[in-house]
Amino acid sequence: MLEQLDLTKVLVIDIETVSQQPSYEMLDEKWQYLWNKKANILNSKGDQTPDSIYGRAAIYAEFGKIVCISAGYFTRSGNSWQFRIKSFYGDDEKLLLQEFTQMLDRHFDDPDHLLCAHNGKEFDYPYISRRCLIKQIDIPRILNIAGKKPWEVTLLDTMDLWKFGDYKSYTSLELLAAAFNIKTPKDDIDGSMVGEVYWKDKDVERIRHYCQKDIVTVAQLILRFRKEALLDEHDIIIAP
User: Fold this and answer.
1) Whole-angstrom distance, CA of residue 60 vs CA of residue 115
2) Which of 88, 104, 113, 207 is 20 to 30 A from 139, comparing alpha carbons?
3) Residues 46-74: tens digit of each pLDDT
4) List of residues 6+ apart from 213 with CB closer than 8 A
5) Full-model pTM
6) Helix 93-107, helix 124-134: angle, nearest 10
7) CB-based contacts of 56: which residues, under 8 Å, 6+ apart?
8) Of 176, 147, 142, 145, which is closest to residue 159 (Cα–Cα)?
9) How far is it, in rounded angstroms, from Cα 206 to Cα 198?
10) What share of the chain is helix, strand, coil (3-state, %, to 5)?
11) What pLDDT score does 1 carry?
């Protein structure tokens, strides 16, 4: 699996998202109404209120926003790999999206370049594209797949690769990391805690650190899929 892939052409990404407001009560009347309609669909058992499930707003691009995008790429160092990471993060979503999309169009705009994320096809890729449209930012070529033929789409997904055509269940990055004896990225926080860390603790640096651990795990998983040695800590280089 992936043995013939040129890793230097792959950019691994991950995003962290939060709700538009810290709480349901902070929404204005229009957005409360719209969330109520969404919550009615989500609340299939009828045992929750729009307020109680507002934390789930973060996973929907219409009700959430991106607070961090981490990206990493492989370079050769002798006979081993290095993995270089850059994060775009902060309170200004439009700015971080602009910086990220400019980086993509500048450095990952060739037809043979690929993006890779875990569950990226279902979450990261469409979420970034939707938030770009909402913020009136051009969608990068590599993510703008409308009208492309299947073989022209250069978006990899480690969860999709792991399915081998089986669509019965979701396999978390944490579970795959454990299966392949890779250090867990969830040793501090996990995705369910990002909203609280952002809105209550106001600690976007902690979110950045968590996001970067996720892309390192995806990179390690790619190497495992290729039956190659894992990255050591000194092989991981984080840009300031």
Assistant:
1) 21
2) 207
3) 788 999 999 999 999 999 999 999 999 99
4) 185, 187, 188
5) 0.95
6) 120
7) 42
8) 176
9) 9
10) 40, 20, 40
11) 66
